[in-house]
Amino acid sequence: MSRRSEEEHIIEVFMRGNREWVSQMKATDPNFFKETGSGHHPDIMWIGCCDARVCANLIVSQSAGRVFVHRNIANQVHSNDPNCQSALEFAVDVLKVKNIIVCGHHDCGGIRAALMNKSFEPEIENWIGPVRKIRDANNESLEQIPELPAKVSHLAELNVAEQCRKLSMLPSIVKRKANPESNDEPLVHGFVYNPLTGLLVAVNYQ
User: Fold this and answer.
1) How far apart are CA 128 and CA 56, in angstroms?
2) In this predicted model, what pLDDT tens digit does every residue of 92-104 receive, in sequence order?
3) Within a 10 A sphere around the Cβ of 116, how many other Cβ atoms?
4) Secondary structure percentages of the chain, helix, strand, coil, to 5
5) How does the average pLDDT of the chain come out, rounded?
6) DSSP one-letter code for 186
7) C-alpha angle with apex 194: 43 to 92, nearest 5 degrees?
8) How far is CA 88 from CA 48, 103, 170, 172, 189, in A?
9) What angle do CA 125, 128, 129 make, to 5 degrees?
10) pLDDT of residue 18
11) Residues noted as catalytic
C-alpha cells in the first residue's frame, strides 16, 4: 500500500468511526447534538495528563460540554506556560467554572521519567524537571517504597498536591479571592485516577 493509499484508508477509518458514533449517540440520546450545539457552558475545568487512558468526561460521568479540559505531561500548572494560563483565565473569567480539578494517575510515564536518573531533550525536560524537584523534596518518603509502581503512584499524589497549591496561588484565582464582591471563586480539587480500577482518590493538598 502506498503512503497516499494508507493515508486515504486511515481517513476513511476515522470518518466511518465518526458516522457510527453519530448514529449511536442519536439512538441513545436524540437531543445530544441539539444540546451540545446550543452553546458551551461547562462548570468544571480539568487539568490532566496527556495519557490517553484518562478520559475526563467519562471518569466523572459528565456529558459532553460539562468539562473544559487542559492537558499536558504529568498534569502540571506552570506560571510560565501560556497555554495553561490562557486556558485558566478563560475558564475562570469567561466560562465562570465553579470547580477546577487537577487529576494525576497511576502508571504515569511523566512521573516514572522523573524517578529516573536520566536527561531528556529540552522540550521533555521542561516537564520532567519540575516533577523531579518534587521527587527530591520528598526523597525520604519515596525511598521507603521499594517497588517502582507504588513509588510512581505516591509521586503522582505528591505532584497533584503541589500543582493544586500552585494553582491556588495563581493571579486568576487569587484575584477572585481578593474581590469581596465575588462569590464565584472556583474550588480547587486534586485527584489521582487508577486505570486498573477506574476509581479516583481525593488528594489533600492543604
Assistant:
1) 22
2) 999 999 999 999 9
3) 12
4) 50, 15, 35
5) 93
6) P
7) 20
8) 13, 15, 9, 7, 14
9) 75
10) 97
11) 49, 51, 53, 105, 108
Specify which residues 59 forms β-bridges with: none
pLDDT of residue 181: 62
Give me 174's grid cell.
Answer: 487569587
Phi–psi pair at 97, nearest 5 degrees: -60, 150
**CA-wise closest residue to 162 among 143, 136, 199:** 136
Above 60 in pLDDT, residue 180? no
pLDDT in tens, 8-57: 999 999 999 999 999 999 999 999 999 999 999 999 999 999 999 999 99
Residue type, 130: P
Residue keyed to cell 509521586: 155
Region for residue 43 given its phi and psi (left: phi exceeds 0; alpha: psi -120 to 50; beta: otherwise): alpha
Q: Across the strands, what pairs with 104?
A: 192
Q: Is the pTM of this model over 0.85?
A: yes
Using alpha carbons, list the distances in angstroms from residue 22 to 9, 28, 34, 67, 104: 20, 10, 12, 20, 30
Confidence band (pLDDT; 50, 70, 90) for 138?
Answer: very high
